[in-house]
Design goal:
Two copies of one chain form a homodimer. With 200 residues, chain A is an all-alpha fold. Chain A contains nine helices and no strands. The first copy, chain A, has a domain of 138 residues: Tetracycline Repressor, domain 2 (Orthogonal Bundle), CATH 1.10.357. At the A-B interface, helix 6, helix 7, helix 8 and helix 9 of A face helix 6, helix 7, helix 8 and helix 9 of B.
Chain lengths: 200, 200
């Protein structure tokens, strides 16, 4: 191609805009036509990249999970802080940048979990796999936190990770309902329950 | 009316079946036609009771919140147990009967929170009000638990209630994804973190 936008640019733009639209409007309320108009991309180009709306969502999940996993491991800042403090800071930044910088894959998963038709087995399994991958990352973090003694150790790292994931997902639903990030902030504040309890 | 089913029967049947279908399939995937077929009710009868699909959902929320609030306050059993143990038992029963006895309003709220179009302000406000009402019920329970000393008191009752609500909502999303109640069971198990911490 010697002129126009390169194909990779188009594809990336569609993936990013798709994530944003699905998160803002929900999966079913987002029409393909609207996505194409927002991106200035003809229908034929879309179908060069993706087989269907479901295939498009799968591509978004694959693309953004990698990005999110990288973010999760960015804990090099705050060299003096405990691992729990670093993760806590990462969660705070996620809330601060909610809806601005990028819309997160966690929101997409929350929406899709609720909206998904019963028949979409391939899509369900892909979401389930991403859920498991994210929980695995959090589990490893909880393991480190317990080893350094910054959080209570009377619950397994995996149980803690599942607990955090559920709470975060539920808080995201409340954010959508309340139209502000207060539920996420409240959730994060109360998550300090995980730290060593007073008197222990 | 001297013959056929009384109107109140029809209306109740529509509300119950509607709750079940919305919870199983999601709001957008449930067609009015399917509901009418399941209930053997003609379209005209539906519109005698409800103005629209949104109006129908509002009626379901109003109807079942009352029912759920009554359930929440049924803690007369286990006379020797602490208030926290009674509530915990109630939550366990909710999980045991998930998807069988009735589908709960909490699932409907989780699904609607994710699916709701941005424009449906009346519906959003109704869901928000029900969310606030349920959290208020849990807040009062947490207050009693803290007074009797069965749960930790370094977090406010309202913050605890919001935390429990978010976790439960997120676990419901995971249940939909996993197609079993393990995420709810895991969440409930870890919720024992609320009890007095070891060493305190």
């Amino acid at each position: 191609m010697s002129s126009g936008r390169p194909a990779t640019h188009c594809k990336k733009h569609l993936l990013l805009k798709g994530l944003q639209l699905f998160n803002q409007q929900g999966y079913h309320n987002t029409r393909l036509q609207q996505l194409l108009q927002c991106c200035g991309v003809p229908k034929g180009t879309f179908y060069n990249f993706f087989s269907s709306k479901d295939g498009f969502v799968l591509a978004i999940i694959e693309n953004y999970f990698q990005l999110e996993a990288e973010r999760l491991s960015i804990t090099a800042e705050l060299p003096q802080a405990s691992h729990f403090q670093k993760i806590y800071k990462y969660w705070e930044i996620q809330i601060e940048t909610y809806g601005t910088e990028t819309d997160r894959i966690a929101t997409l998963i929350a929406n899709l979990s609720a909206e998904m038709p019963l028949g979409s087995t391939k899509l369900r399994l892909a979401i389930l796999k991403t859920r498991a991958d994210i929980i695995q990352v959090i589990t490893e973090d909880m393991q480190i936190c317990q080893q350094e003694g910054s959080i209570r150790s009377d619950v397994t790292p995996r149980a803690l990770a599942e607990f955090i994931w559920c709470g975060w997902q539920g808080a995201l639903l409340s954010v959508r309902l309340c139209k502000n990030t207060a539920p996420l902030q409240e959730f994060l504040k109360t998550l300090r329950l995980l730290e060593q309890a007073p008197g222990s």
